[in-house]
Structure formats: structure tokens, C-alpha cells
Amino acid sequence: MASQQPRFGVVTDPEILKRLAEYRGVWVYAEVDDNQLTNVSLELLAAARYVAQKTKEDVSAVLVGYGIERFARDLIVHGADRVYLIQDEKLKLYVSDAYTEAVSQLVLAKKPSIFLFGANRNARDLASRVAGRVNTGLAADCIQLEVNENGQLEQIRPDFGGKELSVVLTPKHRPQLTTIRPGSYKPLPADYNRSGIVESFEPRLAEQHSRIKVIKSVRERLDPKEDLEKAKVIVAGGMGLRNKDNFKLLHQLAELFEGGAVAGTRSVCEKGWLPHHLQVGQSGKTVSPKLYFAVGLSGAIQHLVGMQNSEVIVAINIDKEAPIFKVCTYGIVGDLFEVVPLLIDEIKRVRIERTLTKESVKAESAGER
Amino acid sequence: MPNILVTVKQVVDVDSLKIDRATNTITTVGVPRKMNDFDKNALEEAIRIREKQGGKVVAVSVGQQSSRDVLKEALAMGADEAYLITDQSIPEFDSRAVSHLISKFYTKFGPFDLVIMGEGSVDHFSVQVGPRVAELLKLPQLTYTRRLEYSGDSVVAERDLEDGFHVVRSPLPCVVTVAQEINQPRLPTLKSILAASKKPINLVPPSQLEINADMLQPVVTTKTVVPPKTERKKVVIDGSKPEEAVQTLIKHLTQEGVI
């Protein structure tokens, strides 16, 4: 019986294979928000280049909006071979109707094989509706992409509330649509020697494509101390903190670092110990700071998928079996209420010593003269 | 008076899931099931509109027979009618198939003025059924709604974006997906649970819904296998003497150049 089971996602029907072969190229959706190209647009280009080098295809960016042509160059220097420029006054602000129509017309005309979107809300909204319009599959909130031996895109995403990762294939439909969590890839450094083509595309947008009216667009700026995606150092707490008040301890540690922020696990935010926008993990933010302190948190996969791209991970937990110790760079098995205050004192001491040493070196060299 | 369709999904309680490390698979058999958290917010919002405006709240679910439980819960919360689209031959549908079933249900059992859904489901979190249903029905969609105002011929929604929000107006009918911040779902009372137990759960086989075979074909296939990548040093220090442990850690972090 088992031998009759088709292998995972393998397509053998020549008719289907012929149809799939008509689709070529790796696309990314480039989003302009608040007169800026979003960072995730550049992250998507990095992901696309990685994939395109395996599938031996070109990378194109689809830039949608109004008065946005100046961003085409940014996309090229960060990895796009081609930029499709879609401009229309109806596309000034994001609305699903007009954006879906514009992007779908381009997809149907040019037939890309792969199309990547950010997993931010408006881009998810768009990707889902485009998937419906062009009748294909969509793997949402992916954190990693690979290409298998059959040239299919392996879309890797947390599943079951982040208990485990899944590989999703879109075997018989094209394009393979994916949304990728912000922070999963790092933008490639700008290469000003790169050249690319900018191609304008004029969609036919009718009245029925603007049923939804944006009455108000409001930006809520994050306190820089709470902007986890930009934070250089994150001190994250879990249920081991025992109550809301104890997060003061984590704030003290975070304040020692420029660009330091406090974050928490899902449970902590659900308890109301921290606000929801400080949640790291599958249903929260994906972060990649230089230094990540995981304090009193066990390291459930749903949390790990949000922070595993951090450079150095320090775990502090009383339970030596906690899964966080299997992914950390350094860990202390101990009581956080003993360890963290000591750590704060030691970092302060080291910093003072460092300053003193520098000053005494200066004083000595001054004395030699 | 609005006729509101609300979708509810029975999901496994992900906190109770166990992973079989030998086969690297997740077993969902025997795991407790519950109503998707976001769907409670959708129901709550629909019931609040009905309480003000009159009309009717219809709950529909796509899933196995056990999904009767979440429909009972929906009735206990205050839904007026409950329907279960179920087919034993197909254990689980993917997002596209579910969307086809819901949109065909809408067409057959409508007209509805409003469809309210959760922004996603806590099990797979594919966050796409709302827009897919809207697309199949050619209706406007308002996703990630955290505030909703209904007036006879339109809705105004506050859509929660990462660093701000949009206030949008849409004509009716339309599809709204709600974020958890939108409300605090009510708990059914003993009285409402008893009343709900007397109401029927109407079974709807897909064959009643003008569904063709292609609509139920999966467009994605999923394999749950990959353990998270771990390529770190994993230097774990015994903290029974905290002072020494912290000293050791500080040495390492100084070498890394991060303090």
C-alpha cells in the first residue's frame, strides 16, 4: 500500500508539468509606506536572490503605489533584476480591491513562478486575495525558503501555534505564493554597480475596484524603546518572572544597553504583564538583535521562531531541561532573581573598569611625554 | 435588520499537542479541541450588532462531526442558527477548499448583509480564508478589524496595522475579519447553554452546495518535519554558585564584544 502513496508533493503528470513550466521568475512585492520603501521589501529581495540562484531565474520587484518611481533604484541595488512599476492615483493608499486587481493583472500577464510578500497585515491581505484571484496556494508567515530537487519552493513555516515547523509545497498551481515574516532575512548590502530594468505596467482599474474608501490613515509611532524590530539588545521574560512587577528587573538590564528593549512570551503578554506589541514569537514579532536575553522562559517553539535569528542568545532558567538551553549561545541554570541582579552589577562594574583603564592609559601616555 | 454570517472553526488545543520525536510528527488524535479563539471575537461582534440592530446571527462551521461542539457553543453564546458543512470522506480541507464551501453556503443560505470571521485560526494560522471567501463572492474585505461600526448600508472599520491604523468604509455586504482586541467575548451562561442544547445543528453535505471536485482539491501540501535550526555554542553554566556563573558569563560576553 505504502508504495502506491505518491511521494510528498511530487508531480508526474506531463500535462501539468507543461503548464507549470510556463511560469518563470521570482517576484517580490515591494511596499511603500509613509513615503518609504518598507524594510521587509528589501528582506524579500534577499530571500528571492537566494531562491533565484537555486532555480536559475531572475528576480523582479513589483512596486505599487503613486509617485514612487524613485524607489525602483533602491530595489535594483538591493537585488532586483527588474522592477515592474505600477502607478495609479487609485493606489495611493493601500486598498485590497484596487491593489489586488493591479497586481493580479500583472501576474496573469507575466506568469511568475514564485511571488513573495511580507507577512505584514496589508501585504497578507493582498497576497490572500491575489491567491484567490489567480487560483493558487499561499503559504503564510514563512520564516525560511528552500528549493527541493524537483525545483519546487519549500516554504517553511511555524505550524500548530508554533509547536513545530512545516514544509509547504504548492505542487500543481502557480505562482507559488508566500508571505514571509519580517525579520526572517537580512537585506543584502546595497551594490551600486548593479543594473536592472524598470518596466511600467498600467493596470485597467475600474470603478468597482474602489468600493472601500480609506477615511483616515493614522500612524502610531513606536517609542524607540519598544521598537523590537530595531532593538540591538532585547531582554525577554517568560512566566518565570512570576508577576508584572518583576519586569522592572528586566528593564534595569535593558537600560544598560543603547537600543535595549524589554519583550515577553505569548503567555506573559496574555497575562497582561506586558502589552501585546512587545510579544516575540509566532503570533508576535520576529526579532534579530545582536544580543537576546531569554530570562525565565522555557523556549517553546512558538517563541523560538521569533528570536532564533538573534546573534548571541543568553538563557537564564532554573530548569536545566528547558528547551531554550538547546538553542542558546550561553546559558546559566539558576534562579533568575539571583542571577539577573548580579549580572546587572557585573556589567556596570566591567563598564566602569573599562572606562578607568582607558583613562589610566591616557594618563600614563600623557605622563611619558 | 442585518443577517450576519459568522464562521467558527474547531481547532486542536495547541498547548496540549505532543510531538512524536521518533517520527517527527504531531499527533492530533485524542488532543482536546476547542473553538478557535478569534472566532469567539467574531461571534461576539455579530451578537452585539444584532442586540442593537435586530436581525439574525448564523454560525457555520466546516469540519468533522466533532465540530458540533463549537456550534453548540456558538448557539450558547447567542447565535440564532447553526450549520455544519461536513463530509466524512474528506478529513480536512485546505484554505481554498474551505473558502469554496463557505462561499457556496453563503450563496445558498443567504442573502447575508455581513460576514464576520476571525483574522486567522490558532492551529495553522494561514490567515487567508476571509480574503479568499470575499474574493469568491466578489465582496469587499476588511481584515484585521479592531473596531467596527454598522449602519444600515455600510460599515466603518478600524483596521489594525503594525504601526498605525486605517479607518475604512465599505458598502454592504462585505467580509470583515476581526482581531482579538476588538472585544471581550462573553461566556455562555448555564441558562443559555440549556437553551442552546434544544436548538438543532443543521448538517450540510458538500454535495448540497454546488461544489465540484476541483474546488476541494488541495492547492498546497504540508509536511510537518523540520526541527528548528540550532547551530549555537550552547555553553551552559551551572548556576549553583551564582557569582561565579555570572563572572563566567561576563567573560564570554566580553569576548563576543556584546557588552
From TrEMBL, chain A:
Database matches in InterPro entries: DHS-like_NAD/FAD-binding_dom, ETF_a/b_N, ETF_a/FixB, ETF_alpha_N, ETF_asu_C, Rossmann-like_a/b/a_fold
Coiled-coil region list: none
The Electron transfer flavoprotein alpha/beta-subunit N-terminal domain, residue ranges: 26-216
Record-level Gene Ontology MF annotations: electron transfer activity; flavin adenine dinucleotide binding
Biological-process GO terms, alphabetical: fatty acid beta-oxidation using acyl-CoA dehydrogenase
Cross-referenced Pfam families: ETF, ETF_alpha
Recorded superkingdom: Archaea
Database matches in PANTHER family: ELECTRON TRANSFER FLAVOPROTEIN ALPHA (PTHR43153), ELECTRON TRANSFER FLAVOPROTEIN SUBUNIT ALPHA, MITOCHONDRIAL (PTHR43153:SF1)
Family named by the database record: Belongs to the ETF alpha-subunit/FixB family.
Official protein name in the record: Electron transfer flavoprotein alpha/beta-subunit N-terminal domain-containing protein
Organism name: Candidatus Marsarchaeota G2 archaeon ECH_B_2
UniProtKB/TrEMBL annotation, chain B:
InterPro entries noted in UniProt: ET-Flavoprotein_bsu_CS, ETF_a/b_N, ETF_b, ETF_beta_N, Rossmann-like_a/b/a_fold
Residue stretches making up the Electron transfer flavoprotein alpha/beta-subunit N-terminal domain: 23-213
Pfam families: ETF
Domain of life: Archaea
CDD domains documented for this protein: ETF_beta
Protein name, per record: Electron transfer flavoprotein alpha/beta-subunit N-terminal domain-containing protein
Gene Ontology molecular function: electron transfer activity
Stated family: Belongs to the ETF beta-subunit/FixA family.
SUPFAM superfamilies: Adenine nucleotide alpha hydrolases-like
